[in-house]
Amino acid sequence: MDAMDVVRAFFHALNNNDAIALCALYDPDCVVEQAWIGRRDTLRGIDGVGAAWRDEIDRYSGAMPGGHRFDVTRIAGIETGWGWVRAEWVRSVAGRATSAEGHAVGYSHFWIEDGRIRRHRTVSEDVPAIRARDPRPVSERRYPSRPLVGVGAVVLSDAGQVLLVKRKQEPLAGQWSLPGGMLELGETLEAGTAREILEETGLVISVGPVVEVFDRILLDDDARVRYHFVLIDYLCTVRGGTLLPGSDVEAAEFVAPANVDAYVATAKARDVVKRALVMR
Fold it and tell me: In this structure, are 61 and 116 located in the same domain?
């Protein structure tokens, strides 16, 4: 794994309460600073670090939908070299003995060498509740100067139904499609996918593997490029939330796979759904 994949695997293990997988990501001689709730100490070596993480997993459960502890909004390399990666996140946990919840926002720095975490330092701030994101500035999609990256999701229910949305805005106004939208600057693909589905449908999802990557270029009557998207669709499952259409969609529904063709107008979207069902 490269450095950023190691950090993704780190948070995945924590969200799954997997102390074995978590400890396997550290170098035996690792140094970890103030990474644990309510502690500001520094530990050296995998024995002490592993014991601290096992204790935290025993003491706290995730209080986010689906039992997650962390939602990571950004994972980025730091231009100081030496394999440094910065992860920005929100955290919500509940005490297993008391059920009292605690919330925090923060970031972690990881020094990755040879696929293992050599140093790890966390800075966090306790907050009364997870804060809502600030409104996003409007970005211009029509007649772009370069291709724009979009993310989408084939969200499957426990019963195997597919989540579809009816669009309000162009380029698919009035049509049913897979939920998704534009990636923001500094946002990971997974975080952008989860954000878009939450905004459009009210559902909190777990983002799984990539189903397909493709482009969409639409021209106007003068053969000018009106839209140019590079689209990445993921296979996703529901963690929580309540299905409710967002401001930029008219409707959101779970549809049986056999009925998707009757809803979705574009052949590409239908093909992506079929591929996702095979992957599942």
Answer: yes
Looking at the DSSP bridge assignments, the partners of residue 102 are: 93
Q: Note whether residue 135 is domain-resident.
A: no
What's residue 51's pLDDT? 97
Looking from the CA of 100 toward its CB, the CA atoms found within 13 Å total 4
Q: Which of 204, 274, 263 is nearest to 236 (CA)?
A: 204
Alpha-carbon span 3 to 236, nearest angstrom? 24
Q: What is the CATH number of the domain that holds 55?
A: 3.10.450.50
pLDDT in tens, 28-76: 999 999 999 999 999 999 999 999 999 999 999 999 999 999 999 999 9
Alpha-helical segments (H) within 227-266:
260-263
> Both 122 and 153 in a single domain?
no
Q: Is residue 133 part of a domain?
A: no
The pLDDT tens digits of the residues spanning 136-166 come to 555 567 888 899 999 999 999 999 999 999 9
Query: Residue 238 has what pLDDT?
Result: 96
Which structural domain range is residue 84 located in?
Answer: 3-127
Q: What CATH number corresponds to the domain at position 203?
A: 3.90.79.10
Q: Is the dihedral of CA 239, 177, 215, 267 positive or negative?
A: positive
